[in-house]
Amino acid sequence: MTLPQKGSIGLVGESGCGKSILTKILAGSIRANSGDVFVNGHPFARINSNFIAEHIFRISHDSHIFEESVHENLAMGDKTISDRQIEDALRKASILGYVEGLKEGLDTFTRELGDNFSSAQMQRLGLARCLLKDAPILLLDEPTSNLDSLNENIILTSIKNNMKDKTIIMISHRASSLKICDKIINMKGQN
Fold first, then answer.
1. Helix, strand, coil abundance in the chain, percent, nearest 5
2. pTM to 2 decimals?
3. Which residue, 157, 189, 187, 176, is CA-closest to 11?
4. What residues contact 5, with CB distance under 8 A and at least 6 apart?
5. Distances from the Cα of 145 to the Cα of 35, 141, 148, angstroms
6. Tell me, what's the pLDDT at 88?
């Protein structure tokens, strides 16, 4: 498959056919056992890891939360990110009201694995982190799996409105999540 410089592709297929593995390969988390991946005509295996970190961002249905403040979880060590930028990202991810209602707000310390946040809230924090990262290539692995249909629509609208200039690869088992994609590819596993 060829990915556009801007636009969105939805990946569907049976569990185990390689959708999540593909996003992990593209994020540089794992190496491909076979086949070729090229970015702008260059073999992916030869691309500098700093390039990958700056240009590709992956979020999954189980966004990882660190034992840090909400602010630190979203800024991920980037001292140039302001509270205002974080609040804007939280607003776009439809979780600002919740965070503002916490006793410590952005300074609320999250517990290991984020167990003081629901899985839906952690997905929204992951989306806010993605919005702050502002990478040109976004890999969204089941970004709405823990949300009801109302909140799914809110998040999909946010993705569509705030990520128009990005290349997006979205995996979802929900047809409703893929409605924002320009193209859908049905992946099949090896038999």
1. 40, 15, 40
2. 0.82
3. 187
4. 167
5. 29, 9, 8
6. 95
Q: How far apart are CA 136 and CA 157, in angstroms?
A: 18
* Intra-chain end-to-end CA distance of the chain, in Å: 20
Beta bridge partners of 86: none
Per-residue pLDDT of 6-54, as tens digits, reads: 889 999 988 888 888 888 888 888 887 888 777 767 777 777 788 888 8
Given a contact cutoff of 8 angstroms between Cβ atoms, the answer to whether 71 and 106 are in contact is: yes
Long-range pairs for 85-90 at CB < 8 Å and ≥24 separation? 85/132, 86/128, 86/132, 88/131, 89/128, 89/129, 89/131, 89/132, 90/124, 90/128
β-bridge pairing 56-60 and 42-43: unpaired
